[in-house]
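Teaching assistant's notes for section 4

Start the section by putting this record on the projector. Ask students to predict, before seeing the second block, whether Fasciclin domain-containing protein will look compact or extended. Collect guesses on the board.
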Amino acid sequence: MKKSLCFFALAGAFSFCTLSASAQTTTTTTKSTTSAMGKKEGVMVGGALMVPSKNIVANALGSSEHTTLVAAVKAAGLAETLMGTGPFTVFAPTNAAFDKLPAGTVETLLKPENKAKLTSVLTYHVVPGRLQAIDLKDGQKLTTVQGQTLTVSKKGNMVMINGAHVSTPDVISSNGVTHVIDTVVLPSK
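Reveal the predicted structure now:
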């Protein structure tokens, strides 16, 4: 990695960020495109074609459903790292996922004085390596870049990460893979 990622504990700062089980979920429109030769070219996410030739950040920049995530990655100073060689597995919350957080949470996290907290939340969504949906097993623990673990739940084709539904799996980039999720997952500390 070109830039080291910071690991910070939240020290309970987000214990108020619980989400109700009845929170609405959104579905990302997913469409794979195929070339004339039958080779998969990419996946449509947020109105843009995510292609394997672009890095994770370059793909995310095109998605209208990930503008909050992109702004947060830039505010935390993680864009350069996530454009690096990786590989990374990113569980990418949509704008609607960020909207589920209590009012004012995103605005507070984006303030320069809260960069450490923001970095902790974002790096909790990143796992070293390239894990596609087929690699994720029910009950599997994934150690994040932040240092804590995420738990995979899998029933048939449905995959959840700490209760967040994977709405679009396997968005392949040159330096890893992204799985779109419908909820922001928060570290315990």
